[in-house]
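PROTEIN DESIGN WORKSHEET
SECTION A - STRUCTURE
LENGTH: 481
TOKENS:
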């Protein structure tokens, strides 16, 4: 008994000495009983002051927001947990204002930082190996910055616990927390509503930053996968994310065959990653194209139809919205074509992969998730650049978690969903490089346009859809050089 007490004391002492180095959605310093009792998440920065106040990095403040006391404690983030949080100044970011906003670097966050996301098949062998090995490193290294929250019932505030997790599994948990439907509803914080593409944009920026901090690779970035270039998964092989057998398991020659899923797919609406220490976690699975209702990938016709939609979102601002860019991008507003699919665009890619990726809350367990969503993010940016007069919708029909003034859950520091509307990728420290090879579905008898960024030329191109229909749609591509 004495030995056990001494061991617990040593663990507790180590915990206390490491608090100032921890930072997360639920940082260690904010998971203590005192922090929860006082509803305060304002950890000290290196100068010893909460939120780096003495160094003028931020202050500890209560957001001007009415607490709604929702039925599910995930709604109205983070009022169920904290009243006082850090508000950061200038280019400082993070829950203790200890890191830089995306697009900035340096000790005082005054140096611009920019990365260019390539299409994944445009990466050379060295770049691809660096990317994939960084993911594997994140999957197998426990974070010293984060803890995850688990719960068997999100309608009972006291019914949760905090656990350690690897950097990649924290990323999986974030999606699970936001994507699991709220109790007694069909809604969540990240899907079926106007916040969908912006939540996932922040999600990718989050994991990019965490892998950079873990690996020391300051220019680590998430490439995109242009799934319009093939009717099948051209990166489901051992050079990329692993070949799969008839049983849906990843080939043993791939590093991803050793990956196990985190946060099992619980059916209960109130459950959040309720068994993080499952002794026999399931492997990642895929059966691409084996579901007859989703046996192909989206094509350029789908993309062009979506980009030509003028309304960002339409009532009722959920999966039933029509003539809506967001609903088309997400895949609920299905084009009327000859394929008779049950979903389109983003949703179709998830359904096509027919395995781990098809179970929405836990889909981020498959690393294909991030390159898929990087392309979704690229399409968002193209639409925003074409529709500069659009705005984030305002309506009581929008679920409260996705309204423009609601804080995006479960991220710190607090940012309203609409805050990201006028933040271009360039302002967030990244851009997208066009694919080095012209799209195989394009007819190159095109007329040149006098626009495009430095080192690129933009062309108007007639697109021929893969279903064999006549050339009928205009789009534009950037050709490097």
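SECTION B - SEQUENCE
RESIDUE ASSIGNMENT:
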């Amino acid at each position: 008994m004495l030995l056990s007490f001494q061991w617990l004391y040593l663990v507790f002492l180590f915990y206390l000495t490491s608090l100032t180095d921890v930072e997360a959605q639920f940082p260690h310093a904010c998971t203590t009983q005192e922090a929860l009792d006082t509803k305060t998440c304002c950890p000290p920065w290196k100068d010893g002051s909460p939120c780096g106040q003495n160094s003028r990095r931020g202050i500890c403040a209560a957001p001007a927001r009415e607490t709604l006391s929702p039925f599910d404690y995930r709604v109205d983030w983070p009022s169920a947990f904290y009243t006082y949080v850090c508000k950061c100044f200038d280019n400082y970011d993070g829950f203790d204002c200890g890191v830089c906003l995306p697009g900035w670097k340096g000790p005082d966050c005054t140096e611009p930082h920019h990365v260019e996301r390539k299409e994944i098949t445009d990466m050379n062998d060295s770049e691809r190996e660096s990317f994939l090995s960084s993911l594997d490193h994140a999957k197998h290294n426990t974070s010293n910055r984060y803890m995850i929250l688990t719960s068997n019932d999100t309608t009972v505030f006291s019914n949760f616990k905090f656990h350690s997790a690897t950097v990649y599994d924290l990323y999986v948990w974030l999606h699970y927390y936001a994507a699991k439907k709220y109790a007694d509803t069909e809604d969540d914080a990240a899907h079926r509503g106007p916040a969908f593409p912006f939540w996932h944009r922040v999600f990718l920026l989050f994991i990019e930053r965490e892998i950079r901090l873990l690996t020391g690779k300051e220019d680590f970035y998430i490439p995109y996968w242009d799934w319009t270039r093939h009717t099948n998964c051209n990166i489901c092989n051992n050079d990329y994310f692993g070949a799969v057998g008839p049983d849906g398991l990843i080939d043993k020659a791939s590093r991803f065959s050793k990956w196990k899923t985190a946060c099992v797919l619980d059916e209960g609406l109130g459950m959040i990653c309720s068994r993080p220490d499952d002794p026999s976690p399931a492997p990642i699975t895929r059966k691409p194209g084996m579901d007859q209702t989703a046996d192909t990938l989206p094509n350029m016709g789908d993309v062009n139809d979506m980009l030509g939609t003028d309304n960002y979102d339409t009532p009722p601002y959920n999966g039933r919205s029509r003539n809506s860019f967001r609903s088309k991008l997400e895949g609920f507003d299905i084009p009327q074509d000859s394929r008779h699919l049950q979903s389109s665009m983003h949703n179709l890619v998830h359904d096509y992969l027919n395995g781990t990726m098809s179970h929405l809350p836990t889909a981020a367990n498959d690393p294909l998730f991030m390159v898929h969503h990087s392309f979704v993010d690229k399409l968002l940016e193209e639409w925003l650049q074409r529709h500069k007069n659009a705005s984030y919708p305002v309506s009581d029909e929008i679920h409260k978690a996705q309204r423009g003034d609601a804080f995006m859950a479960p991220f710190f520091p607090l940012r309203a969903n609409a805050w990201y509307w006028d933040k271009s990728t360039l302002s967030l420290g990244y851009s997208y490089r066009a694919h080095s090879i012209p799209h195989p579905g394009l007819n190159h008898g095109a007329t040149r346009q006098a626009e495009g960024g430095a080192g690129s030329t933009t062309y108007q191109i007639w697109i021929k859809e893969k279903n064999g229909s006549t050339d009928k749609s205009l789009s534009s591509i950037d050709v490097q050089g």
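SECTION C - NOTES
The longest helix spans residues 196-215.
Residues 1-24, 444-481 have pLDDT under 50 and may be disordered.
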